[in-house]
Structures are given as structure tokens and as C-alpha cells.
Amino acid sequence: MILRYFLKTLALPPMISILVALLAILLWRRRPVLARTLAVISLASLWLLSSPTVSTTLMRSLEAHHPVLSQAQRESTEAEAIVILAGGIDDSAREFGFPVSQDHTLLRLRYGAFLHRETGLPILVSGGSVFGDDATTLAAAMANELDFSFQVDARWREEQSRTTRENADFSAALLEEAGIDHILLVTEGFHMPRSVQVFEQSGLTVTAAPTAMTQYFSAPGMGWLPSSLALHQSSLALHEYLGMLAYRWL
Length: 250
What we know:
By secondary structure, the chain is α/β, with parallel strands linked by helices. It has helices at residues 2-11, 15-26, 32-49, 52-63, 71-75, 103-119, 138-150, 164-177, 192-201, 228-249, and strands spanning 81-85, 89-90, 100-101, 123-126, 156-158, 182-188, 205-211. The chain is built from 10 helices and 7 strands.
């Protein structure tokens, strides 16, 4: 997993732009034309990926596959359980004194709790220890969060997975034991296409229940000004496209 994380970091912004810039510096004397071209590519890619216009477009291109559920769809769903995917854990939350869910996970838990109250469906939380060194599993932290913050119980904890594909495989095995094959799948909109893909491949019927959809940047003339948030969103979107390609190849 560490090697996988390292390679993924190299392939995504901002590191990929930095690597192109370093290559330009190395070639500056021997191949000046190529070096200047690479330098321009590095700066232009970093600027574009840091602009809200580009990052929002990338995120929305993923979210367009699965729109949010309407109230009528929620009320008439034939799903038998709600599956909430983990999105990170904070092991060093000193203000709490115990591990807590990070922001992406909290967004998913909030919507999962909302769906549970609307549908009455039981909840499965999915997430293990990605690098094997967490004080607790993602699923355990999620179950605690649901109970403490939302007064909702998680019926199942899937605590073995380290990737989205493993989320699907291990969750499907737990649900099969309970005779469940149709789920409401809860994750953020940008993460939904890859999640639906692997959960359907695991044999489940999936109704996508995305949350935290990206809002268009509406400030006039500001969409091309770089920001750290936009760069982060671009990196998230490209990570999803890279993941979908990797799953297809493998």
C-alpha cells in the first residue's frame, strides 16, 4: 500500500507538475527548446489545475453520472440496506482523545444518517486500516461517529478493506450473509462512478446516493485565479479517473 500511495502521489498534482519542472531544469543546457517547453507545460498545468473553473469542471464531469436522489426516489427505493464508504480518519485528534472521522467521512455519514431516518434501512459502514497502523479501523470510527453525533446505529462494520474495490468485495460478503443484494451506496459525488463500478462487479444491485456535490464557482472573473482548494479538487478528480483506468486495466 505504501508503494501504491507513493506512485499515486507522483502521478497527481501538484507533484506531477513539479516533476516536469525538475526535468526541464535537468535538460536546460542540453535540450533548451525541450526544456522551455516542459517549463511552460509545468507552469500552465499547475495554474489550470489550481483554477476553480477547471477544478469544478473536472469534479462535475464525475458527478454528472449519478445525480442526487429526489425525495420520491428515496421514499420508493427498493434497497435493503445503506452502505457508507469511509473517506479518512484522524488518529491524532487530541481535542477528543480518540480517533475521529475526517471531513470526507463526516459528509458521507451525515447523509447516510439522513437516509436512515427517511427509509429506516440498516447501515453498513465500510473501511479498514489503510496502512495497518491506525489505532482503530475507519469503520469503527464511523460507527462511533454515527452513534455519538447522529444517534444512529451501524448494524454492520466492514473493517478489512483498504481500497474502494475491497470496500465492495468485503461489504458484499457481509450483506450476502444477511440475504441483502440491493443497496443505497453513500459516498461523495466525485467518488461515486468508481464506487458504483466495483460494487456492481461484486454482485450487488446499486442505487447511487451521492452527497456533497460540487458547487459552480460563481464569483465573476475569479474562476481563473489559482487557489489551494481548487488544486485539491483537481487532484481528487484526477485520482478518480486514474483509479477507473487502473481498475479497467487490472
